[in-house]
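Supplementary notes for students who missed Thursday's class. We covered one full example, reproduced here. Read the sequence, then the structure, then the short commentary at the end.
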Amino acid sequence: MRVSRLLLVTLRDVPAEAEITSHQLLLRAGYIRRVGSGIYAYLPLMWRVLQKITAVVREEMNRAGAQETLLPQLHPAELWQKSGRWQGYTAGEGIMFHLEDRQGRELGLGPTHEEVITSLAGELLRSYRQLPVNLYQIQTKFRDEIRPRFGLMRGREFIMKDAYSFHPSEADLRETYGVMDQAYRRIFERCGLDAVPVDADSGAIGGAASQEFMVTADAGEDLILISDDGQYAANQEKAVSIPSAASPLPDGPEESIPTPGLGSIESLCDAKGWDPSQVVKVLLFVATLDDETLQPLLVSLRGDQELNPTKVVNAVSRTLNKGVLDCRPITPEDNNRQQIDPLPFGSIGPDLSDDVLKGAKTWEPTFLRLADETASELGSFICGANTPDLHRFNTSWTAIGQKPTSLDLRNARAGDVCQHNPESRLTEKRGIEVGHIFQLGRKYSEAMESRFTNENGKTEPFWMGCYGIGVSRLAQAAVEQHHDDSGICWPTAIAPFEAIVVVANIQDETQSQLGEALYVELQAAGVDVLLDDRKERAGVKFKDADLIGIPWRIVVGRDASEGTVELVCRSSREVQKLPHAEAVTCLINALHP
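Structure (token representation):
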């Protein structure tokens, strides 16, 4: 390809819409162009990158025994209603674009394909003899993000590879899950990415076990915690640890202590000389369940710990055996909206009476009470007295008449002791999720009544796995991990071109002829090469070559008359002056050792 014929429009200034480096560089280098909020056109250079990535994904999926298919993007609502996810994905802040056709039938644009594939499996896979089966597709998905940002990282339309496996037993599922884990590691390694597999929460998709693959980068939206012995890694939503020990309270009787204006843990402890680990703080939430019930929550946590919202949602779902659509803090404004008794914010204790809810208009009349183990394990503690500006000192769970279930509801954090090794501690990094694999179990096959006949002649639901890779997200994550002050430094395997021949002065006949000869020779040798034959200044060409990030550059300049060129490695910036034949040999050996 000749640059003079390539749709390449580079920008010198950083676009105002771009917040992180990878987004800025993809826009400046002419890889993508914004069409609407969270909607981007993949321009020719980016499409070549995406084709390279999908080729690697396709090869490794086929190698793992998966079969490629293509599923519809438009989904009938009935399928999602059958699984119980339609309401959660379309109501309120649900992420599914949905519409009605001219006959009034409800449809959704697929953000994911569990319902469609499970329904098809129930029709097509009737016997255990047909199992296991692993089907995958690479296609566009849609999610109605409230705040699209960071370019391809959180868009409303994106390219994804998703795979779904069907099994006769849990053991067979675990085997395929392991095969897919290894396939994913090979995919990211071949794409030149440093991707860390971490334990993860299964989220709205559900399932018994899941693992994310994170590309480490400072701009990552996720916080991942990694043990310093390298044996444990998890997304903070899922991470566990051993918290630091609480500071014991001195022996003595329970007291009621006035605390006017001390409504936060920080102000309370600063004013009274207490340690936050001696305090039980109480947080109030209201959860919207998938049956439209509004359930008030009372959550107790040790004062020096941070609540993990994902763990709270999961605890509510497990306790009530219902899905949670939303979970928000209760605020003073809710007193009037719900016509409930004024809540003593800043002085709430774990034993706040359900009587405060008796006038609630739409809420359930009793709290679901949850306690993090850091709070429930305290022998004596300080807590609110359920009266404004009053706290109890040296009280206990027995004294307040509570016996909380011990749950893990806190955020693990850097510096915590690891559960697997008391000698190891957690460190933190930022990460960009590029892949996620799940053991779904029978969640969807049971809901969709998708069954097969086992070897004993009885019907039972499939065991299922789910495996996703964000293809377009992976491309931008690669830029976030591989760039410098001058532009992108693509890993060779996914670069739009492997090499670029830059003719410094295309109007110089000697340079032009040597550049053309090198271009033809490299093409004949199977190198994916670009020729910059534009009538531009050499400096402009060099800046563009650095910006678009082609891994290797051959510069044909003033020494062309002597047959000498420069061979430049984009990532290391190493420059070698070589005879042109030797430069070609070195380049081919570097690309295809």
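Commentary. The chain has a mean pLDDT of 93. Residues 492 and 551 are 6 Å apart (CA to CA). If anything here is unclear, bring it to office hours.
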